[in-house]
Amino acid sequence: MTLSPAHDVEHGRRVASMFGRIAGFYDFLNHALSLGLDIVWRKRLVAGIEMDREREGCVLDLAAGTLDVALEIARRHPRTRIVAADFTLPMLRRGQAKIKPDDAGRIFPVQADGLALPLPDASMDAATIAFGIRNIRPRQAAYAEMLRVLKPGARFCILEFGTGKRRIWGGAYNFYLTKVLPGFGRLVSGDAAAYRYLADTIRAFPDEDALAGELTRAGFTAVSHTPLASGIVFVHRAVRP
Ligand SMILES: C[S@@+](CC[C@H](N)C(=O)[O-])C[C@H]1O[C@@H](n2cnc3c(N)ncnc32)[C@H](O)[C@@H]1O
């Protein structure tokens, strides 16, 4: 279904308002609901950019949220600067409090929409997005913006849930996704809609091959993916030609 630009703008507003409401619970619920696996998944995402440890580059983390990916990039690449872009200020504020004084001069949280990044053309050496692409509409516009800001040859890595339609672990994961997760999320955050939204968007998300097709049609090359936790999530990798 193709929605009008007005729907996309309204969708963005609703997403930003929802993450603004749950920002205070986000980290706790992330770790609790994934049983801590999200920490390992973000490490796998950052390993996917395959940058030299000593390189003095600039990496974009889009939909940076509370900065866990940005902090992992900083840990793994001690000489790199990181632009951590997200349009929800309360999420970035939570993240900012986690930046160590030594890293304060090289992690830059920026309130920005992934559809209109305040970055020059061909300025980024790599880019990541964790659990963010699912929320952005239209995805094609986000890919185009990513291609614009990446340098030729730079990698773009996505960490995202696989489609929730496939049965995983004999259906136990699917039960967890539709029943346990929204209930637990509601209990802790008091926000039923936010955690129903999470389950709904995972179920509606394209599978890994469809996502690879989108990235290729958008203009990326060397598109590949790796399943983690039996395909609950995937790391997708692509290169800006
Ligand atoms: C599920 S959180 C992921 C946060 C973080 N990457 C992580 O791994 O925990 C999704 C984030 O995407 C952000 N987001 C959604 N659409 C966006 C857009 N169009 N531009 C910028 N940020 C966006 C939300 O504000 C939210 O912080």
Features:
241 residues, Rossmann fold, 7-stranded mixed beta sheet, 8 helices, 21% strand, globular, binds S-adenosylmethionine
Task: Explain the overall architecture.
With 241 residues, the chain is α/β, with parallel strands linked by helices. The protein has a single domain, classed as Vaccinia Virus protein VP39 (Rossmann fold). 46% of the residues lie in helices and 21% in strands. The protein is built from eight helices and seven strands, in the order ααβαβαββαβαααββ. Strands 3-2-1-4-5-7-6 form a seven-stranded mixed beta sheet, sandwiched between helices. Strand 6 and strand 7 form a beta hairpin. Helix 1 runs parallel beside helix 4 and helix 6 packs antiparallel against helix 7. The chain is globular, with a radius of gyration of 17 Å. The mean pLDDT is 92. The site of S-adenosylmethionine has 22 residues, from helix 1 and helix 3.
